[in-house]
Amino acid sequence: MKILIINGPNLNFLGIREKNIYGTENYDYLLNMIAEKGKETGCTIEVFQSNHEGAIIDRIQDAYFDGTEGIVINPGAYTHYSYAIHDALASVTIPKVEIHISDITKREEFRKVSVTAPACNKQIYGHGLNGYLEAVDYLLENFLHLDAENS
Predict the structure, then answer these.
(1) Residue 41, exposed/middle/buried by CB under 10 A (0-12, 13-18, 19+)?
(2) CATH number, residue 84
(3) Range of the domain at 23
């Protein structure tokens, strides 16, 4: 299975920004965690990060054509207002999981609303960096076995 993990704005600043919310582990730590998950599961996992909305939309659209079978997305602040990312997610039939490191339901009011989650199959929040691994497991458990049964 080919999985694409998309990280939005400021996620490259893990370990630098708001450590009390996002933890002390840096972005390289997250990338290594994800690489290990790929080895453990036999999945090809690509990670893409951008601070630019259009680049995220372009990568979602490219996923439609490049054989991506599952998307994990942490849209960062775009979660709360990017209808353009919502529309890009909604336009691809690839299974999608939205994740957030922090518990967005216990933060500022504006963070409690996700305009992108309705375009995803599942939302995971408040599980720290492990949320990424849970999202990969969800895709494998709910979509990979379906492919094996139908072939």
Answers:
(1) middle
(2) 3.40.50.9100
(3) 2-150
DSSP letter assigned to residue 140: I
Task: Take residue 118 and report the two structure tokens written for it.
Answer: 């309705």
Q: In the chain, how many domains are there?
A: 1
- CA distance between the termini of the chain: 14
Q: How far apart are CA 42 and CA 60, in angstroms?
A: 22
For 39, 64, 87, the CA distances from 90, given in Å and listed in that order, are 29, 11, 5
- Tell how far CA 52 is from the center of its chain: 15
Q: What tens digit of pLDDT does each residue of 6-32 get?
A: 999 999 999 999 888 898 999 999 999
Residue 72, strand partner residues? 5, 97
The residues assigned a catalytic role are 22, 100
pLDDT in tens, 88-139: 999 999 999 999 999 999 998 888 999 999 999 999 999 999 999 999 999 9
The count of other CB atoms within 10 Å of the CB of residue 74 is: 25
